[in-house]
Design goal:
Layout (H helix, E strand, L loop, with lengths): L1 H14 L15 H11 L7 H20 L27 H8 L4 E4 L4 H8 L5 H8 L8 H15 L3 E6 L2 E6 H7 L9
Antiparallel strand pairs: 1-3, 2-3
Helix pairs in contact: 2-3, 3-7, 6-7
């Protein structure tokens, strides 16, 4: 956790923010601390310590996400009158708007060194994300806390295999899961 907080503090210093709020995009900074511990436990195993660490972090995000938001993998009834046609993800009454945003070819890219204004602006591109986050996380500070939880929602959807996520050089992009599979882009991590 020290590495996570340190990166959030580093960002605040670099961009001149007065408030330090960790973000999901800060999580890769915990991997060096985890991998050393995992190497001791998994010495000689086939899986690399970084892959195991990513899987553990992903599983923690998914389980924490399900405590605060509806499980994206649980079937929910569709509004009456809708047929079987169309994409199943966009029919989801909770996450449909968010998933549909990515299914239509849209993507967002965030970085761990973005100002809060740029970070919020990028997250606000995703239709329905702010509204869903507010619905389940009431009494949040709109400027600092809400955007961090909005990214948490996207990562929770990624960890539930609803959208794709790529991480390259401290930049994270969220996009359509199916499209990234067919183009060969997008990193899928085994969680179990």
């Amino acid at each position: 956790m020290e590495n996570l907080i340190s990166n959030a503090e580093r960002r605040a210093i670099l961009i001149g923010e007065d408030v330090v709020v960790p973000r999901i995009c800060d999580l890769p900074h915990v991997l060096p601390g985890l991998t050393g511990k995992i190497e001791l436990v998994f010495e000689g195993e086939q899986e690399g310590s970084v892959k195991v660490s990513r899987a553990l972090v992903g599983k923690a995000v998914r389980e924490t996400f399900k405590r605060y938001f509806p499980d994206p993998l649980r079937k929910r009834s569709r509004p009456s009158g809708e047929g079987q046609g169309g994409k199943q993800a966009s029919e989801d009454p909770e996450y449909g708007k968010i998933i549909q945003y990515f299914e239509t070819g849209n993507a967002i890219e965030i970085a761990d060194d973005m100002t809060i204004a740029a970070y919020t602006k990028e997250l606000d591109k995703v239709r329905g994300l702010r509204e869903l986050t507010r619905k389940y996380m009431k009494n949040m500070d709109d400027r600092y806390e809400l955007p961090s939880v909005m990214e948490f929602v996207l990562d929770g959807l990624h960890q539930s295999s609803k959208i794709a996520k790529d991480e390259v050089d401290h930049r994270t992009s969220y996009k359509d899961l199916v499209g990234s599979i067919f183009t060969g882009q997008g990193k899928m991590y085994e969680d179990d």
